[in-house]
Amino acid sequence: xxxxxxxxxDAGIRLLDIAPGRARTALTVAERxxxxxxxVHGGYLFFxxxxxxxxxxxxxGVSTVAAGGDIAFLRAAKPGDELVAExxxxxxxxxxxxxxxxxxxxxxxxxxFRGRSRAAPHLPPPYAV
Length: 129
Prior knowledge:
With 129 residues, the chain is an alpha+beta fold. The protein has helices spanning 6-11, 42-57; strands at 14-19, 22-28, 64-73, 82-93, 96-105, 108-119.
């Protein structure tokens, strides 16, 4: 999937690891990720969490898309910070799933994300990572 997702690559998001129902992504904060206050733009925090969510919900080998997502921003991140998003499947029933993602800098929680997925078996299967 990383080869097929130019947006993830262009943002500087990296896949650290993946397992069934789980994934971790990372982003080293650069100047391009900052908002007018000099801290990470919330859109990039959402994007990093959404990327981990995407890898986790597609880890079962069936194409899956987002049905929705919410995020709570808890603290700011700054240039040079290494953000790590860890996604874990919390519920899977039929074609629907719920995934929680925690974004951290070290041990400090920066954001909490909850994503809702929907399997889309009519789409081509996800590419190998």
